[in-house]
Amino acid sequence: MAEEKPTGTVLVVGAGISGIKAAIELAESGYKVILTDESPQMGGILAKLDYQFPTDHCGMCRMLPLVGREYASQYCMRKSLFHENIEILPFTGIDSVQGNGGNYRVDLRKRARFIDPAICNELGKCIDVCPVEVEDEFNHGLTRRKAVYQAVPHNNPRMLLIDKQACTRCGECLKVCPTGAINLDAQDEVETREVHAVILASGVQLYNTRDFEDARSYAVSPDVVTSLAFERVLSSSGTYQGGAIRRPSDARPAKKIAWIQCMGSRNRRQHRDYCSSICCMFALKEAVLAKQKGGPEVEATIFYMDMRTFGKGFQQYRDKAVEEHGVKLIRCRVQGVMLKPDGSLMMRYHDPETNEFFEKDFDLVVLSTGQIPFEAHRRWADLLKAPLDERGLLATEQPGMVRVAGKPGLFLCGSLTGLTDISEAIISGIAAAGEAAKFLTALGVDTVKKEDIPEPASKARELPLVAVALCRCGEKTGAAGLDYELFRAELTRYPSVGAVQVIDSICKADGEAALLDSLAKTACNRLLIGACQPFIYRRKLKDVARKAGFNSAMVEIFDLFGVARRGMAEPSAADWTLRAAGEIKADIHSLKYKPALQVNTLPINQTALVIGGGIGGMTAALSLADRGVPVHLVEKEGHLGGYLGTRVEHTIDGLAPVALAADLRQKVLAHKHITVHLNCEVEKSLGTLGRFESQLRFKNNGENKYLHHGAMIIATGGREGATTEYGYGTSEKVLTQAELKRGLTDGNVDVSEVENVVMIQCAGSRQKEGRRYCSRICCLGAIGNALEIKEKNPDARVFILYRDVMTYGFYEQYYTKARAAGIIFVNYSPDAKPRVEMAEGRPVVKFTDPVLKEEMELPADLLVLSTGVDPGESNQGLADALNLSLTEDGFLAEADSKWRPIEFQKVGIYLAGTAHSPMPLKNVLLQAEAAAQKAYTYLSGRELPTAAVTSMVKDALCARCRRCVNICPYGARSYNEADKCIDIDAAACQACGLCAVECQNNAAEVRGWGDKQLMAAIDAKLMDRPLASAG
Amino acid sequence: MSEFEPKIVAFFCNWCTFTAADLAGTSRLSYPPNLKIIRVMCSGMVDPKYVIKAFLNGADGVLIGGCWPGDCHYINGNLKARRRVALLTEVLKQYGIGEERFWLRWIAASEGTMLREVAVQMTAKLKELGPSPLKNMGQMAI
Question: Which range marks the domain in which residue B104 is found?
Answer without folding.
Answer: 8-134
